[in-house]
Amino acid sequence: MSTLTQTPPGAENPVFYDLDEHEHPPGHSTMLGFWLYLMSDCLIFAMLFAAYGVYGGSYAGGPTARELFELPLVAVNTTMLLLSSITYGFAMISADERKQGAVLGWLAVTALFGAAFLAIELYEFSNLIHEGAGPQRSAFLSSFFTLVGTHGLHVTFGLVWLGTLMVQVSRRGLVDANLRRLQCLSLFWHFLDVIWIGVFTFVYLLGVLR
Amino acid sequence: MSAETHHGHAADHAHGHGHDHGHDAPHGGSAHGSRKGYWIGFLLSVLLTAPAFALVMSGVIADPRLTAGIVMALAMVQIVVHMIYFLHMNTKSEAGWTMMALIFTAIIVFIVISGSLWVMYHMNLNMMPSMQAEMSSAGM
């Protein structure tokens, strides 16, 4: 913006407003903006949770949650996501210490755990569909696949982002822009873990108890 | 008014440039936590997750309602643990705006979920076969 001074109409003594753009460091407001995005994402999940809460018992004469869900598998899945959370934390600490190799290593470990999580989830989905318990079977299964699938989709995009960042860091190093991106992905990744707490509690554990 | 905003900017600047290793202004101070912090968060979440699964899988408590209550309470605590140790939420980052956004979101989430369940539960009750029979006999 250029320097623009205006005299408010009717003012005897001109009042000057300083409209000069102050020098903002790039990424100055990125973290707040990204946090707001996460909060809006949270609302999407809230709606999906609400839909599951309403339809969770509508089996339409089909298989019930208790018959379908394999809790040991879900426990393994939860472990994968939890481990990936702490390994991402170690990546962030290595980034603080400016150890590029360690950052790349921890990111790779995080990606492995994330991929394991996805693989287990896809295995579960394919099993369900194979048993005839696909999303079209009942309102319960539709809302289940929508909620858990949306979370899985987020993890998938998180993995794509993670891979992209590994390339970025290995090429450009731990420059400010990359550190900022790592911070954003950190929020995103841990946020997905928080959503998963809701999923395994409300969908799997309470579903089996229902 | 303009003086105030100017002041805010200046303070922001000092903060942003004051950092030694070019960190973004937003997070400030102990932004990413420490190794110890991550370990504490991890151990706490293991201690909160494992009992939840164990309770449901073993069925120790006969009353499923009590089990459900305990499991939900554990989840709530774990969400808070993750918020503090992994997402590094505090009241100070971004001059408190992240916390404001979080509180606002939590309220909306509560309204959406509890409201949906409440309304739909009563709708279901009203759609019970007996009620339908009553309604049709009443000429509705």
* Oligomeric nature of the chains: heterodimer
Number of domains of chain A: 1
Beta percentage of chain B is under 5%
Secondary-structure element order of chain B, as H and E?
HHHHH
Rg of chain B, nearest Å: 24 Å
Secondary structural class of chain B = mainly alpha
Radius of gyration of chain A: 23 Å
Q: What are the segments of chain B in which pLDDT stays under 50 over at least 5 consecutive residues? A: 1-30
Q: What's the total number of strands of chain B?
A: 0
User: If interface size is counted as residues with C-beta under 8 Å from the partner's C-beta, which chains form the largest one?
Assistant: A-B, 58 and 58 residues
Helix count from the secondary structure assignment of chain A: 6
The CATH topology of chain A turns out to be: Four Helix Bundle (Hemerythrin (Met), subunit A)
Fraction of residues in helix of chain A: over 70%
How would you briefly describe this protein structure?
The complex is a heterodimer of chains A (210) and B (140). Chain A has 210 residues and is mainly α. Chain A is built from 6 helices and no strands.
Task: Indicate the topology.
The complex is a heterodimer of chains A (210) and B (140).
Chain A: H1 30-55, H2 65-68, H3 71-96, H4 100-130, H5 139-172, H6 176-209
Helix pairs in contact in A: 1-5, 1-6, 3-4, 3-6, 4-5, 5-6
Chain B: H1 2-18, H2 35-58, H3 64-85, H4 97-126, H5 129-137
Helix pairs in contact in B: 2-3
Keyword list:
heterodimer; A: 210 residues; mainly alpha; Four Helix Bundle (Hemerythrin (Met), subunit A); 74% helix; B: mainly alpha; 5 helices; 73% helix; disordered N terminus
What this model shows, in words?
The complex is a heterodimer of chains A (210) and B (140). Chain A has 210 residues and is mainly alpha-helical. Chain A has one domain: Up-down Bundle (Four Helix Bundle (Hemerythrin (Met), subunit A)). Chain A is 74% helix and 0% strand. The N and C termini of chain A lie far apart (60 Å). In chain A, 39% of the residues are buried. In chain B, α2 packs antiparallel against α3. The longest helix of chain B has 30 residues. The radius of gyration of chain B is 24 Å and the shape is flat. The termini of chain B are far apart. The interface between A and B is large, with 58 and 58 residues.
